Amino acid sequence: MRVVVQGGGTGVELLCVVRAVLKKIKRRVMVGDRVLIGSIDWVDRRGMIENVFRRSSEVLDPPVANVDHLLVLFSMEQPKPEPFSLTRFLVEAESTGIPLTLALNKTELVDSQAVDAWNSRLREWGYEPVFCSVGAKHGLDTLSSILKDQTTVVVGPSGVGKSSLINVLRSNTHERVGEVSMRSGRGKHTTRHVSLLPLSGGGYLADTPGFNQPSLMKVTKQSLQQTFPEVGSKVK
Ligand SMILES: Nc1nc2c(ncn2[C@@H]2O[C@H](COP(=O)(O)OP(=O)(O)OP(=O)(O)O)[C@@H](O)[C@H]2O)c(=O)[nH]1
Ligand SMILES: [Mg+2]
Questions:
Q1: Which keywords does this chain's UniProt record carry (predicted)?
Q2: C-alpha–C-alpha distance, residues 58 and 139, integer Å
Q3: Which of 96, 133, 187, 189 has the highest Cβ tally under 10 A?
Q4: Segment 158-185, tens digit of pLDDT
């Protein structure tokens, strides 16, 4: 696992193994974890993860610890926002309890009426959507200031521009930080790569592969209504 040692300027990256006893007690090390490192060799830049600090939050799909913020990204066209799928993504994101931002990309492919219509519709749902276009470089400063100094996981269907957005917001160094491959909960032998990528404006962003049906695993009949901001604001 790659661990960034912070403190004064740019962090040094160490390649670390996990101490056997942590594996034995099944203490999992996730991307985003803050860890205690020992046996450091500063020359070869190697070390050993001795312990894992308590997490402020945990996202399971993809597995990332200490996530401050979720970015739910859809696009205005190619693909068009589909209310059912959008609702599922929002319910899934709300169910984590982590603050979220909803953004719609590819605005340059539609006229302003289409943007206005979705803007009012989403405001009725209780959101303040950010409209952007990676292609036309529009709305990126707004997103970059929202993402600043936070660890954000980007979710959304395939093709909406998640990876494209991350690429434009990334620092010039293009180094990958915290890359860990791990077994997915979905298939025994599927290896998925999750990385925290440093943003040029500060903060980290984790990409996820687009999928169209969030599992809603943590949502129950009782908690469902709390995942709709419009319900919360009306039932007082
Ligand atoms: N017209 C237009 N195309 C865009 C924009 N942003 C991204 N794209 C294009 O949309 C396509 C999909 O973009 P990706 O960034 O790969 O989408 P993704 O969300 O990462 O997709 P998955 O990895 O499959 O989940 C690419 O061809 C991009 O060039 C935009 O603002 N406008
Ligand atoms: Mg992608």
A1: GTP-binding, Nucleotide-binding
A2: 29
A3: 133
A4: 899 998 999 999 865 554 444 444 443 3
Domain segments of the chain as ranges: 1-54, 57-216
Distance CA 52, CA 35 (A): 5
Assign a CATH topology to domain 1-54.
OB fold (Dihydrolipoamide Acetyltransferase, E2P) (2.40.50)
DSSP line for 89-150: HHHHHHHTT--EEEEEE-GGGS-HHHHHHHHHHHHHTT--PEE-BTTTTBSHHHHHHHHTTS
Ligand 1 pocket test, candidate residues 164, 167, 169, 205, most atoms within 8 A of CB? 164
Residue type, 55: R
> Which candidate, 33, 152, 29, 178, places its Cα nearest to that of 98?
152
Give the Cα separation of 56 and 83 in Å (integer): 31
To which residue do tokens 């292609």 refer? Answer: 135
State how beta strands 12-18 and 35-41 pair.
unpaired
Ligand 1 center to 78 CA (angstroms): 9
Identify the pLDDT of residue 177: 45
Show the low-confidence residues of the chain (pLDDT under 50). Answer: 175-191, 236
User: CB neighbours of 232 closer than 8 A, spacing ≥ 6?
Assistant: 126, 225, 226
Measured from the CB, is residue 163 less than 6 Å from ligand 1? Answer: yes
Fold designation for 57-216: Rossmann fold (3.40.50)
Residue closest by Cα to atom 9 of ligand 1: 161
